[in-house]
Amino acid sequence: MQMTWRWYGEGNDDITLDHIKQIPGVMGAVWSLHDKVAGEVWEMDRIQEVADQIKAKGLSPAVVESVNVHDDIKIGRDTRDAYIDTYIDTIRKLSKVGVKVICYNFMPIFDWTRTDLYKQTEDGSNALFYQKDLVEGLTAQEIVDRILKGAGDKTMPGWEPERLAKLEELFEAYKHVTEEKLTENLKYFLERIIPICEEEEVLMAIHPDDPPWPIFGLPRIVRSRDHIRKVLDLVDSHYNGLTLCTGSLGPNLDNDIPGMIREFGDRIHFAHIRNVKVMDNGDFIESSHRASDGNVDIVEVVKAYHDGGFDGYVRPDHGRHLWGEEENCRPGYGLYDRAMGAMYILGIWDTLERKY
Ligand code: CS2
Ligand code: MN
């Protein structure tokens, strides 16, 4: 397994490439052009610039998270072909600088959804929290207002204020997009891009829906074993693969995550590892990576990867905010808990590598 770290870019992340280099075992920076909204052209010189910055520090730019998919593609509007052309152009350009994996998601309107970005926990740290009855009781607009207010001046991928300003229009556009329709639209997208990925040797890795159930009446199609199987079968190519995110699938306790890792095997191109603690009422909070701190058995997760000879990319996903770092970091993307997470994962991995 190749350990990586999500980096938001020069001047856009308090955690610099120099910091990242000091975390044992990290070989790559997971990056994106974070100022680009879905559907925008990625210029070659901008791509080259970031890849060069990463390479100059001896790190690999092999993973991009994310190239976001325009809503018109998910909705299946006539304009989708032009947006797919732009997506293909980005795939080709990324391949030129050594990108091997592109992580993306196919969630309508929202990326990961929480009700609190800084929920206090007993030990004084705070973390991303999902309160089920609030999401069920509030309108989408109320949740958006809550999240954007909580985020303050920090930008969060998938929560672009400009895009969410048109929430009503977006919901109207998705009115007839059922689970089946969304799946068909994903198939259409994949059928066009996967041949290019095969040519350019760039692996696509769809990220699961977070939380793994429909919210605000919007369909969600990457949230269980059966859903993922279906997505991988839409286009049966090694290049149509998965980002297996334990923290996204974890809040549904019926999801057997180690089982999925064993089943999907070499179609997993990128592993996101994080833990969640699920309460009896269905609320959940992001916990430390340690298996005993949450409901995802991270030891079993790493063991499943190890048993399968996983040699793809992995990163510690969200972490809690510790020691006051929430003043400066993006929600879920502080330094300390993620660095400890990386070490926990590598500790399990290294132990499994030993033959006693
Ligand atoms: C999140 C997402 O769980 C995660 O990794 O931080 O924002 C994720 O990057 C996107 O859903 C992938 O497109
Ligand atoms: Mn993830």
Q: Any overview of this molecule?
A:
By secondary structure, this protein is α/β, with parallel strands linked by helices. The chain has a single domain, classed as TIM Barrel. The chain is 40% helix and 16% strand. Strands 2-1-12-9-8-7-4-3 form an 8-stranded parallel beta sheet. Strands 5-6-11-10 form a 4-stranded antiparallel beta sheet. Helix 10 links the parallel strand 7 and strand 8. Helix 4 (80-96) runs parallel beside helix 9 (179-200), helix 12 (257-264) runs parallel beside helix 13 (298-307) and helix 13 (298-307) packs across helix 14 (336-353). The relative contact order is 0.14. The mean pLDDT is 96.
Provide the CATH topology: TIM Barrel
| Through-space gap between termini | 21 Å
Mean pLDDT, to the nearest integer, reads 96
- How many structural domains in the coordinates? 1
Helicity, as a percent range: 25-40%
Proportion of residues in extended strands? 15-25%
CATH superfamily: Divalent-metal-dependent TIM barrel enzymes
The gyration radius over C-alpha positions equals 19 Å
Identify the strand order in the major beta sheet. 2-1-12-9-8-7-4-3
CATH class descriptor: Alpha Beta
The backbone outline, from C-alpha atoms, is globular
Q: Can you count the helices? A: 14
Helix-and-strand structural type: alpha/beta
- Which compounds are bound in this model? D-mannonic acid, manganese (II) ion
The CATH architecture assignment turns out to be: Alpha-Beta Barrel
